[in-house]
Amino acid sequence: MNFSAKIPALILIPLVFFLSSCETLNVSAIGTQGQFAKEADEERLWKRCMEEQEVLARSGFIYDNPSLNSYLSSLVSKLMPEDVKKTGVNVKVLVIKDPTINALMYPNGVMCVHTGLLANAENEAQLVSVLGHELTHFINRHSLKQFRNLKNKSAFFSTLSMISTSLSGLTGSPQDYSSLGLYNLISSVNGYSRTQEKEADTGGFDMLLRNNYYPSESVKVIEIFQQDEKDMKNKHRVPYAFQSHPSNKARIKTLKKLCKLHDSEFNDKSRITGEDSYNKHTVDLLLNNAAMDIKASRFNSAKRAVDRYLQLCPQDAKAYYCLGEIFCNRNEKDDQAKAIEHYKKSIDLDNDFPFAHRDLGLIYYKTKLSNEAKTEFEKYLALVPNAEDKKYITIYLDELRRGETK
Amino acid sequence: MKKKLSLALCLLLLCGCAPWQLVKNPRQWKHSGFEATLPGEWMKFNGPMLFLTKDGELLQNINIYKYKIDKKDALPLSKKTFTDAMLPQEISELVLNEMSLDENKLKLSVIENSPVDIGGKSGFKLVYMYNTKDSLKIKSILYGLKKDKFIYMIQYLAADQYYFDKDFKVFNDFIDSLKIT
Q: In terms of CB atoms within 10 Å, which end of chain A has fewer, N or C?
C-alpha cells in the first residue's frame, strides 16, 4: 500500500471507532416527557454525587439552621414548575459554611447555597434569581449533557491522537493536536458551557417573573458578584478562556436585555422584593459569615454583612466587636484607631462582652499602654475565668505587673 | 570526551540525590541555627529543612518548615501575612485560621493552644486533630517560634489510630534535644 492510499484508511478506521463511541447530547428536560427516568450513565452520575454528599455531610461544613433550611426549601418548591413537581423529583437544599458568594447544583438535585450568598444578597428576589439559575441547570439536565460532551471529547481526542500518531511520520508535528486537545478539554471540564449558563440565566429570570418578583433584582445580584470580584482584586483569577460562566459584565448585559423585554412589568406595584422575610431568615448568619470573611481576608464583604446586620439590629455589641475585628485584621492605615473605636463602642453597649476587652487589651499591650492593657485583660479573665487563651493572657498580665513593680 | 564527562557528572549527581536516607543510629543534625538528635531507624528526606518518617510520610512524620516574615500572602488560603510585630498567640491563631480554611482538613478541632518556651525561645504549642476526606483521623503537635526573619514550625503529625501514640515519645525526645541559637 502506498502512502496516498494509506492516509484515508488511517483516518477512517479510528473515525468509525469515534463515531460509534459518541453519546447523544439530545437530552430532554425533566418534566417535558411525563415520568422522569434516569439513563444508565445518569444513574452512575447520581450515585457518584451521593458519595460526595456523604463526605460533605461528615465534613462539618454544613450550616445547620432548621428555620433557614425550611425557608430555602419553600422557595425552591415555589420556583419548581408544576410539570417537574409531577415527576416526583425532589430538590434538597444544603447551606454551606463558605463566605464566597456562590451556589451550585449537583446533578442529582442537591443544591448547595453558600452562607456568603445569603449574607451578600439583599433580598429574596435576588436570592430567587440565583436559585432559579441553579434549578434550570438541574431541570435541563445540564450536568448530564456536559458529562457526555466531555466523554465524547475524550473519545474524539483519543481518536485524534491515534490519527496523529499514525501520521507523525508524515506531518512531523503531531504534538500540535495534543496541545489543542488539552486546551479544549480543560475548558469544558470546568463546569457548564457558556450556552448552558446563558440558558440558566434566562430560566432563573423566568422563574423570577412567574413568581411576581421585581425582574431588575436579577441584575443587581450579578452586580454584587461583580463587586465581590473587584474586592478580591482578581487574586488567582481564572483566565477568561477557562471560565465556565460568562463574565459578570456579559451576564448583566443579557439580563438587562431581558428586563427591557419586560419593561411594562417594572412599575407593577404588585411585584415584590421579599426583603422582610429574607432578612428575618438570614439575620442570624450575618455575623457568622462575617467572621468567616475575616478569616479569608474578605474584609469588604465582611463589612457589608455587619452593616446589614446593624441596620436590622442596631446597638449590638457583637456587631461592633466584629467591625473592630475587620479593622484589626485588615491593618491598613488608620485601621488600628478604627479597631479601638469599635471595640470601645462594643464595650459601651455591653461591658460584659469579653472578647472586646481581650482584643482591646492586646492592642494596648502591643502599643505599650500598660495600664490600659492590664485593666482590659483583668476584665477579660474576670468574665471568662477559664478562657481558652488564659495561659497567654496570664503571661501578658505577669509581664505588665512586673513592669509596674520595677 | 565531552559526552563521557557529562554522563559521569549526571551519575554523580543522581547518586548524591537519593531522596530518602536511613538514619541508622541517633545522630546530631544542624541547620539554620537549629540543632537536635535525629532518631535512629527513621528515614530522612533530602529536601526541605527537615522531614523524617518511620513507617511512611502519611502515617507519621516529624518535620520543620519555615515562613518568611512579611512575605505577602504567605498563608495562601487566608491570604494573611506574618509580621514581625506579631505575638506568638497571634501567630498561632493565624496558623489555625489557615487550617480551618483547608478543605482537606475536615472537622478540625483544637485540643491545646498554649504559650511555650522552646529551645530557649518563646513560642506556641498547638495540639489539634482533623479528619481527611477518606475519614482518616490525624493528630498533630505543632510548635511555632519566631527567629530572625522567619517563623519556624516544628511538627509531629500522625494517624491518630496506633501511630500517634507509638512515636509520641520519639518526638518528645527530639524536642528535648532541640537547641536553637
A: C
